[in-house]
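Technical annex B. To support the medicinal chemistry partners, we prepared a structural model of the target in complex with S-adenosyl-L-homocysteine, based solely on the information shown next.
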Amino acid sequence: MTSPRTRQRMVERLREEGIRDAVVLAAMGEIPRHIFVDEVLATRAYDDVSLPLGFGQTISAPFTVARMLELARGGNPIGKALEIGTGCGYQAAVLSRLAREVHTIERIAGLLGKARRCLRELRIVNVKVRHADGTAGFAGAGPFDAIVMAAAAPSIPPDLPQQLAIGGRLVMPVGTREQKLVLVVRGVEGFAETTLEVVNFVPLLAGITR
Ligand code: SAH
């Protein structure tokens, strides 16, 4: 249930469900998702469901991760990436295969130990994990070619588009009762915003916690 074969079946399913980016599919086929979830849930790690991580948080379903990263890439390699909402570190691990340098921010300290352990176990060295409130992004490490937010905000935090490089892409869920995925692309002249499908993420919360 946690074998490379199971992972390949997940990749086939993602392809059938409409994920087209071969680089994203290859990365999802490479990163063992089951090590990021609790042992008792490991057999369900490759099902297309979100799973509880503790602290009231969830690991996004494989399709959601693939879709976000496909949009973030826009068909091009990513130089510097920012992820807001590390959770268990799974999406950051996949992102590490798509970007040269990944910064990921999580507000719940209790989640970070496991995330760091998993990234180390996979010998991923281009992901920097930070315990902070990511609402205002991470100006110090920008500008970013991609920003991916794994928690929903009522509107786009104004600091985030500003931290995009020219050509950079921000993907995040926006909304309260109903959320939609929003893509913002920074052009030379300004920002182009596209609203996409309905999604379901945990809310972006302010402040940090143990
Ligand atoms: N990418 C994760 C998904 C985690 S769910 C994965 O692959 O597992 C979203 C995460 O966003 C939660 O862990 C939650 O604690 C975190 N989060 C919510 N608000 C945040 C904020 N303001 N700053 C940083 N992280 C936040």
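Notes passed to the chemistry partners:
Residues 4-16 form the longest helix (13 residues).
DSSP finds six helices and nine strands in the chain.
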